[in-house]
């Protein structure tokens, strides 16, 4: 897309000089910084005061080595992210307050990061060189990867915004930032074409790493490279690499990594395209392309309510997505619903042990007043169907979170950050979770290793799916749904798929037609219908349902769930054929608890007798709608 469309563009003439790349007010532009919303100023300064005496604790080599000794990587990564978050907070607060209170700590933080032996975490180094057995960091471990890119982003924009103040202390500070970013990111970027995420290797599929790394590299070349020929060469390479990412996207714009990864994937692509457009005075602009629009629009289609999004695959049901990038994306593409979703989501405080993206934080800061003045409400679209990815979303009423919300997926089990979840579904009631996709736990070595699918929360039995003869769905591209048929109208929205091929042959399934229906007429309800044909009869069939709400048996064939204080939903099933069992999940760790709280339940419905074929139907409704 980019390379073909702009192959004849003279980039040397089109690109603004590094001095002209100026998206944010400089720190000494006190009118701009003091014109921010008062509550925003107070919030950032209060955050920074917590770290006024921060000691910049050392990154321990033993925590780096733990990846090899135990597979644990979270402790080391938390320490890395904490450093970056503290530096970002201090820099933001210093620019906002402008009194020098935090300046020494900002400089301390800059040098702490520049003195780190490597910015590359062990997982990413091993991913790039699987044959390496070396468990110690080295000063030559420079490569273009996520943490290097995020660190470069942080330091580059501190340099860009605070450069005048830093130079007043010493010109060595900004020069050191430039030297480190060049050595650790820009030189490796141009030296190699074999990074898997670049998309230049045949048969290797890229994911969110591509736009994430490319956007940070683009920032570096735009802000630091003085040689116009080298700068143009780098931008051409970035455009070719972004084309490889765009080429992997389905025509429906669906992010198969889930909304939690939309921010660095679709949102990261937007950042790169935004930078390309702004740095060329609009000479490069593909925001009119239908696919680029649909990549952005996906995120409002996947929105449920408040911070809840449809979270198939790895990721969180409440992903840490800033509304700002949605707003900017919608503004560029002219999509009002995307702008409204972005304006409706308030920017939260940065999470200290998660990525701190300086460019994104600065963008959010200076668009906050504009978003506030829009007084927007999330669009709450009634229906969405992504036909290539086989994902549907439907709600009772357009424009409201009240009532029932249903999401379901077909697809295959070779999606990026895949869970074995073909045919799974999600149900929310009045914006509250009822039957859910758990998501994932904190990442560790096993998450990305050959034993990934031994992790319980990735398996089909811990999704809202059937298990036949104890056989679970299998990972791989051939394990997929087929014969998808979708229809929607005023009274109902329905998806039907055959998920038999998502299971290995030993499950003995010939046909497993699963349909999902949201009925709006009369008493609104959701129906999940399974019609199956097996090669041999068995009673070993169980239907799993994952819920954060305690299931309470209320009558034969019914369970009640208190999804909000004093508000109840009902699950009805054929008690003459199915016997329920309840398992309380007590293996939830920090990330699942962060999304769902302390409790999760697995309700399973088991066949009472051996069957070779049959039809089973589950009905879900609000108790008040059946009165």
Automatic annotation (TrEMBL):
The record's subcellular location field reads:
Cell envelope
Q: Which residues form the Heparinase II/III-like C-terminal domain?
A: 407-542
Name the source's superkingdom: Bacteria
Its main subcellular localisation, reduced to a broad class, is other
Listed GO CC annotations: cell envelope
Q: Which GO terms describe its molecular function?
A: lyase activity
What InterPro entries does this protein's entry cite?
Answer: Chondroitin_lyas (IPR008929), Hepar_II_III_C (IPR012480)
Any Pfam family from its record, for instance, is Hepar_II_III_C
> What is the name of this protein?
Heparinase II/III-like C-terminal domain-containing protein
